[in-house]
Amino acid sequence: MDGKLKLSAFNSSVTSPHTKSKLGMAELGMVLHHTHWPISERRTWTSLLLLGIVVLYMVRTSVPVAIVEISQELNWDKKTCGIILSSLYWGYILTQVVGGHLSDRYGGDWVLWGAGIVWSLASLSVIYFAYVSDLLVIAARFITGLFQGMHWPAMTGLLAHSLPASERNYNLYLISAGGHVGVVVFGFLGSFLLFHHGWQSLFVVVSVAGLAWALLLRTVSVRSRSRHKTHYKLSANSHMTERTLRLEVPPTPGPCTRIPWKKLLQQPPVLALFLAHFSHCFLFHNAISWLPTYFHDTFPDRINSAWQYNVLPWASMAVGSVLGGWLAEWMITQNVDMTVVRKTTTTICLGGGSLFLLLMGVVGRGGQRFSPTLLCAILSFGFDGVSVAATVSNPIDLTPSSAGALFGAMNSIGTLPGIFGVSLTGYILQATSNWVLVFSIMAGFNLVAGLTFLAFGSGKQLHLDS
């Protein structure tokens, strides 16, 4: 049923004297949830969501940046560090689908600001818990992950429901680049704070930034919803007509529509997407958790160059994200089939990322060639950044009406490497100190996933009711 038919059916029900009072506000809420942002609001929301991703990743990288200093002060070994680094993902995996469902049903704005307050406070608590018990630090990171896990699915669902189809991909590319920007900003800022004000200052700064963003988002959200309610207010003595509403309602299901998960999970494009995203995340989560430790251990005499390996690879990933988005958009404007677009960007992401990751391990052996090793890291991260135009955008292609829920399921799969892969890396390093082995495992996953996506991946919408 297209948008106009839905609106006509809705109009008939609320103008009926028997059903107006009973259905009015509930149906109005459904329509408002599926209304696109006015053009005047889109720039504000895009900027605010971009800022949110920046802060989200600043909080996420606070422990990886500080863990070398904390472990030296509190005598944590590699195994303990691995458990603490992975604990964020234990919580992260539990709320992916929940965040997507809440967004698809009630609107992602409320999910985003509510979760933001909690993960900011949980991050702040690390300062105190670190001196009390390792288990409390693990609990704090678990809670941080639990509520950060809602962010991406809620944001993806919000964009899917609030932007016309022609603008969704571009805005998702732009906002997603904020994650890399956040790591870059915190690479500079975190390195400065770490060496001049102690590791505790990192958590104060990122937590305050998170709270400020969440409160700003709530203010904008309340005002936006208030304006829409006022404009489309249902009066007991008036009749709602299609002309009065003048809504741009996309063909999306109502809040009570059930997602056919059984059919969805039997689709080869969905399974190929899950594997490709799992592989990308295996590299990404290990990199974001262990890269500072790798350079610190391999090049201990370059401690004053910490800002370089905390900043430059992530800056490259941000550039790769933007260039990948531009490449995808250019291919789309050239009428290239969307399946070809997604397969091309996924191959660039997984193939290039794994190649230079392996080279980084080989070149870095012996701890003598810092600059070439750093260059390999920069190139690996740059290719991996293309994922924004590959797996990250694919749920909107496959199931635009329930993109938040599918993204949540995909990101749940992608969180598994954060849980097991990050811990596994800690155990391997504790037993062998062999970084090349770690990088080879990541590259192997990328190779298998890339070939699978080439065979079964798709950029076409799935019609599960046929």
Provide a descriptive summary of the structure in words.
The chain has 466 residues and is mostly helical. It has 21 helices and no strands. It is globular, with a radius of gyration of 23 Å.
Summarize the structure.
By secondary structure, the protein is an all-alpha fold.
Rg calculated over all Cα atoms: 23 Å
Secondary structure category: mainly alpha
Number of helices: 21
How big a fraction of the residues is strand?
under 5%
Give me the strand/helix succession: HHHHHHHHHHHHHHHHHHHHH
Mean pLDDT: 80
In total, how many beta strands? Answer: 0
Distance between the termini: 14 Å
| Contiguous uncertain segments of 5+ residues | 1-34, 231-256
Largest sheet: none
Q: Fraction of residues in helices? A: over 70%
The shape, in one word, is globular
Helix and strand layout, with pairings?
Elements: H1 3-15, H2 20-33, H3 39-60, H4 62-74, H5 78-92, H6 96-106, H7 108-124, H8 126-129, H9 134-148, H10 151-162, H11 165-197, H12 200-231, H13 242-245, H14 261-264, H15 268-298, H16 306-333, H17 338-363, H18 370-384, H19 394-398, H20 403-432, H21 435-456
Helix pairs in contact: 1-2, 3-11, 3-12, 4-11, 4-15, 5-9, 5-20, 6-7, 6-10, 6-20, 7-9, 7-10, 7-12, 10-20, 11-16, 15-17, 15-20, 15-21, 16-17, 16-18, 17-18, 17-21
